[in-house]
Amino acid sequence: xxxxxxxxxxxxxxxxxxxxxxxxxxxxxxxxxxxxxxxxxxxxxxxxxxxxxxxxxxxxxxxxxxxxxxxxxxxxxxxxxxxxxxxxxxxxxxxxxxxxxxxxxxxxxxxxxxxxxxxxxxxxxxxxxxxxxxxxxxxxxxxxxxxxxxxxxxxxxxxxxxxxxxxxxxxxxxxxxxxxxxxxxxxxxxxxxxxxxxxxxxxxxxxxxxxxxxxxxxxxxxxxxxxxxxxxxxxxxxxxxxxxxxxxxxxxxxxxxxxxxxxxxxxxxxxxxxxxxxxxxxxxxxxxxxxxxxxxxxxx
Length: 300
Known about the structure:
Strand content: 15-25%
Structural class: alpha/beta
Largest sheet: 8 strands, parallel
Radius of gyration: 20 Å
């Protein structure tokens, strides 16, 4: 049987890049979407499709000859343009339309654990849940993933410990979460492509270990060999900042509303998958910090 031909939208990002790696390890044929060809050179993609996610016309032909479309397209940083509605919502709907026109069999999409409850608070969750609904109504085979969060989403706690020697935790410090490595998630996506038990399903997923936010911060300090300085702050202080952002940067507001919701939630856990450990990830980050310090010392 021929290996599936998979389109990866978001292949230039952290999640999509790891999905490409996992699919290629399974011998699948991968076409990656990029607005600049150079961003996917050396990625392992069998084919690079050059197109702009927010330009519907440039996506024509993206899904031709494909069996499966995976999308991790989404807003992850704070520039004002394009908006969350142009990326998380409309761009993904345009890709869905391309998939249907091309006769794609299966579409795999990411939203977030708790997004169905979060959508009335967070524009990011609302935008992505609308896409999930459109996918389920499309008639295509689907798999909707709702991950808890990835190691790189948690890394800001490590950065606080490394750069400032302080980690501030707004809201509930003992909120429980089991973050996962994007490579573990990529391997899960590869299973979903070939195993019928993953089809026409919605899956909450997380990593193999569950921690409180406080424990994650302590782990970051331990990896750095520093004494832990963790300061718990009331969520209302963060909420004031979030509301002020709406006036001048809607995208930043949308992202921080997402965080605000998670920090008032007692638990954001999903079914455990994978084997990679957050502790090892932090150790790798700490080793890189020490390498940078050594280089800076030599340069000085």
